[in-house]
Structures are given as structure tokens and as C-alpha cells.
């Protein structure tokens, strides 16, 4: 089992390289120009935050606003505003929570499903162009490592939250 270096230890060159590459990917995917291009290719008009939220709703069972906010690591008020806009556009609807009739869950509508499917198709086409020279084994390995990295980031975030709670008590 690998040991965790102290947080004040200098980062290895590999970690520094990975952090730099992730920063570049984040910049490339979050640029307004890139988002606008993706929306034009998909034939959909959604804000960047709405795309992330609609993707999460499409990939999940209907859930409460607070659950969505937790999954996206944002404030509930941010999710509330986005859901209201998505609901006005006909992309999501509110349904009763079967566990608590006083509460509501957010569910994607057929119109929302069509919109997010179009966004995903346009995004996948762009990735196919960018990664056209990668062979199947490289793509499979990259996907596996990305999933592992994201899972580890979530685990580390949970560990940080737990250690913060322990240190405050």
C-alpha cells in the first residue's frame, strides 16, 4: 500500500507535470469560445454550468437539489438557479420524492435528454478528431487512468473533509 507524503513535502516532477496537464485541459474545455462552438455544433443553447448539471441529471435517477449540489460540489443556490432555467426551457421537471411527498426530485424530460445527447455527440466528435492518431489500447488505458484519477480525487476530497471534521472537534 502506498504511503501518503506529508502535505508540506515537495511534489514530485511527475505530479507537477500531471497538475500542469490538467490545468491545460481545464482551460481548453472551459473556454467560452470552446463552449460556444460545442453549443453551435450541437444546435443547443445552454450555459456552461447548465451543461454540467443537465449531464448529471441525465446520468442519474431523479434526485433532490441538495444531492445534485453535492455531486457537483457547488452551492445549492447555484443548482436552484440552474434548475429553474432548465425547467423554464423544458429540459427538466420536478417530480414528487417517493420517500418524502413534501420534497421534490429533479428529472430530465425527453427534450432535455435530446439536448444533452446532442451535446455529447458533438463533444465525442471533437474528441475523435483530437485523438484520431491514438490506438484502441492507448484510448482504453487513458480512459481507465482518468476514471481511476477522478475516483482518487473524490476519495482524497472525502478524506480531507473527514480530517477537517476530526481536527475541529
TrEMBL record:
Signal peptide: none annotated. Transmembrane segments: none annotated. InterPro entries: HTH_MarR-typ (IPR000835), MarR/SlyA-like (IPR039422), WH-like_DNA-bd_sf (IPR036388), WH_DNA-bd_sf (IPR036390). Residues 15-151 form the HTH marR-type domain. PROSITE patterns: HTH_MARR_2 (PS50995). This is MarR family winged helix-turn-helix transcriptional regulator. It comes from the Bacteria. Pfam families: MarR.
Amino acid at each position: 500500500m502506498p504511503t501518503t507524503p506529508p502535505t508540506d513535502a515537495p511534489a514530485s516532477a511527475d505530479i507537477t507535470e500531471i497538475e500542469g496537464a490538467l490545468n491545460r485541459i481545464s482551460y481548453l474545455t472551459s473556454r467560452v469560445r470552446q463552449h460556444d462552438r460545442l453549443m453551435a455544433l450541437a444546435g443547443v443553447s445552454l450555459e456552461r454550468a447548465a451543461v454540467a448539471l443537465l449531464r448529471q441529471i441525465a446520468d442519474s435517477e431523479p434526485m433532490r437539489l441538495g444531492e445534485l449540489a453535492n455531486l457537483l460540489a457547488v452551492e445549492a443556490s447555484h443548482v436552484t438557479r440552474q434548475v429553474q432555467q432548465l425547467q423554464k426551457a423544458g429540459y427538466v421537471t420536478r417530480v414528487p420524492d417517493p420517500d418524502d411527498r413534501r420534497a421534490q426530485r429533479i428529472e430530465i424530460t425527453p427534450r432535455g435528454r435530446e439536448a444533452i445527447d446532442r451535446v455529447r455527440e458533438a463533444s465525442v466528435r471533437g474528441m475523435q478528431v483530437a485523438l484520431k492518431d491514438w490506438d484502441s489500447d492507448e484510448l482504453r488505458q487513458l480512459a481507465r487512468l482518468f476514471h481511476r484519477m477522478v475516483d482518487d480525487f473524490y476519495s482524497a476530497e472525502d478524506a480531507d473533509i473527514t480530517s477537517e471534521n476530526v481536527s475541529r472537534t
